[in-house]
């Protein structure tokens, strides 16, 4: 069946809107690098990463957690991470009782330890439960980060997190695409810094080279 | 697992960092230089994905438009959307399903990610095998006229291949997203067993996933466009019918 010109234009316009957006990540590269250095230090001390978001951003939270828990680069160490949007029982339980604003804060309160890190994902920066989750995390002394979009919303206006990355684009789908690259880079750089902070250990001849698989 | 002092496979991604790692670690690290290197790397990745997206747009704009029209046709006729993938791709499958079911604009449509029911996934995996987790669900839930979308970075996932075979047998429209050379999914497409296949020409799992996110976002947008065009202007919808 021949494609109509109307559909063809819709697809071309959609790709066109993405043309330059992806490159904007580079603008915050140094901030990302600093956040990764701080995360690596916390992982080194035994901290874990707690991630949360709503809707599509909830799937980003799951993606980030699996990225750390089951690295795609062979030989890379698994680092502890947990996505709070995966537990439908707790999510709906807390929402039905205390309210939806509390769904992440409640889990942070009961899961978090001081060396942990919290990462909230909110495409418009206005998600009340993400803000509450981050506020709870800050109160408990966690290192806090946020991935936002648009103008950053409330996440960028207030002291919501130690590091806020804003994908400055009004289209939430494009924001998500920038976030995916951002958290892939985040994961890679955490591992780079993690390796650099290695305590000096005696060589283990039996294991030499195993970590450098392709 | 080795070595904390090893960069593992990452030394391929960050050769300059690997080269200096041992020296810097011993010396306590040169913070500013490392941060600058890391920042440069992040910029490089951003440029890579932008270029890859342009390649995908050049290669797949027309096939994506055709796919959107086919998917929209099925959904307009009462078909439902089923999505599936493993690991990071399962999160994309869920993102795609919720984009259709709870759209930020346009028409909400029935869509289900086959990884969301942990009871079903673990029951099938434990009792039968992980290869059937998606195929069995499609056999039970699917109808002719439905749409099956599977995402895989390698294209080699056995449970995706089984799902597409089941979906094809059941008269469903099949759409695959893959990377590398397309793997097993490319074989299925060549054999006429996969209606639409989009292969992201990259060998980086991360860049493939990022480009696939763009592909399914564009697909969703184009499907909404086609459905809106079919429905006509708001005032005429009742007169024209679906």
TrEMBL record, chain A:
Per UniProt, the keywords (alphabetical) are: Isomerase
GO process terms (BP): carbohydrate derivative metabolic process
Q: Pfam families under this entry? A: SIS_2
Quote the CDD domains the UniProt record gives.
SIS_GmhA (cd05006)
List the PROSITE patterns: SIS
Q: Which GO terms describe its molecular function?
A: carbohydrate derivative binding; isomerase activity
PANTHER family hit by this protein: SEDOHEPTULOSE 7-PHOSPHATE ISOMERASE / DNAA INITIATOR-ASSOCIATING FACTOR FOR REPLICATION INITIATION, SUGAR ISOMERASE (SIS)
Q: What is the name listed in the Swiss-Prot or TrEMBL entry for this protein?
A: Phosphoheptose isomerase
Query: In which organism is this protein found?
Result: Sphaerisporangium rufum
From the broadest rank down, the organism's phylogenetic lineage runs: Bacteria, Bacillati, Actinomycetota, Actinomycetes, Streptosporangiales
Encoding gene per record: gmhA_1
From TrEMBL, chain B:
Where do the SIS domain residues begin and end? 71-233
Q: Which Pfam families match?
A: SIS_2
InterPro entries according to UniProt: GmhA/DiaA, SIS_dom, SIS_dom_sf, SIS_GmhA/DiaA_subfam
Q: Does the keyword rRNA-binding apply?
A: no
List the GO biological process terms: carbohydrate derivative metabolic process
Respond yes or no to whether keyword Isomerase is given for this record: yes
The UniProt keywords, alphabetically, are: Isomerase
Q: Which PANTHER family match?
A: SEDOHEPTULOSE 7-PHOSPHATE ISOMERASE / DNAA INITIATOR-ASSOCIATING FACTOR FOR REPLICATION INITIATION
Q: What is this protein called?
A: Phosphoheptose isomerase
| Name of the coding gene | gmhA_2
């Amino acid at each position: 069946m021949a494609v109509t010109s109307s559909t063809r234009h819709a697809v071309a316009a959609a790709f066109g809107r993405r043309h330059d957006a992806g490159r904007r990540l580079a603008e915050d590269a140094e901030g990302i690098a600093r956040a990764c250095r701080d995360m690596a230090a916390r992982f080194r001390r035994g901290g874990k990463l707690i991630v949360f978001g709503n809707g599509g951003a909830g799937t980003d939270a799951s993606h980030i957690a699996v990225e750390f828990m089951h690295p795609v680069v062979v030989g890379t160490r698994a680092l502890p991470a947990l996505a709070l949007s995966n537990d439908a029982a707790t999510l709906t339980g807390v929402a039905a009782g205390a309210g939806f604003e509390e769904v992440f804060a409640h889990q942070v309160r009961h899961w978090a330890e001081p060396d942990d890190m919290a990462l909230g994902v909110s495409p418009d920066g206005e998600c009340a439960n993400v803000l509450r989750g981050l506020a709870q995390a800050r109160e408990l002394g966690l290192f806090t980060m946020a991935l936002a979009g648009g103008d950053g919303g409330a996440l960028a206006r207030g002291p919501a997190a130690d590091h806020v990355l804003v994908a400055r684009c009004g289209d939430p789908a494009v924001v998500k695409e920038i976030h995916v690259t951002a958290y892939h880079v985040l994961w890679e750089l955490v591992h780079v810094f993690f390796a650099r902070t290695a305590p000096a250990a005696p060589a283990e001849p039996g294991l030499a080279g195993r970590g450098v698989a392709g | 697992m080795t070595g904390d002092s090893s960069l593992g496979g990452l030394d391929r991604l960050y050769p300059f960092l690997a080269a200096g790692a041992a020296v810097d670690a011993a010396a306590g690290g040169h913070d500013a230089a490392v941060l600058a290197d890391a920042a440069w790397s992040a910029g490089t990745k951003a440029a890579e994905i932008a270029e890859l997206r342009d390649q995908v747009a050049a290669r797949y704009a027309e096939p994506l438009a055709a796919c959107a029209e086919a998917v929209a046709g099925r959904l307009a006729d009462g078909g439902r959307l089923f999505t599936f993938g493993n690991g990071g791709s399962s999160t994309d499958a869920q993102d795609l399903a919720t984009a259709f079911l709870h759209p930020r604009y346009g028409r909400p449509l029935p869509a289900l990610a086959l990884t969301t029911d942990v009871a079903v996934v673990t029951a099938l995996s434990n009792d039968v095998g992980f290869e059937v987790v998606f195929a069995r669900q499609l056999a039970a839930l699917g109808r002719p006229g439905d749409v099956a979308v599977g995402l895989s970075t390698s294209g080699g996932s056995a449970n995706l291949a089984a799902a597409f075979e089941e979906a094809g047998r059941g008269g469903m429209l099949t759409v695959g997203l893959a990377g590398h050379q397309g793997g097993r999914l490319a074989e299925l497409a060549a054999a006429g067993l996969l209606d639409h296949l989009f292969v992201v020409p990259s060998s980086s799992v991360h860049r493939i996933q990022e480009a696939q996110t763009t592909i399914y976002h564009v697909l969703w947008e184009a499907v909404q466009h086609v459905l809106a065009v079919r429905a006509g202007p708001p005032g005429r919808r009742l007169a024209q019918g679906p």
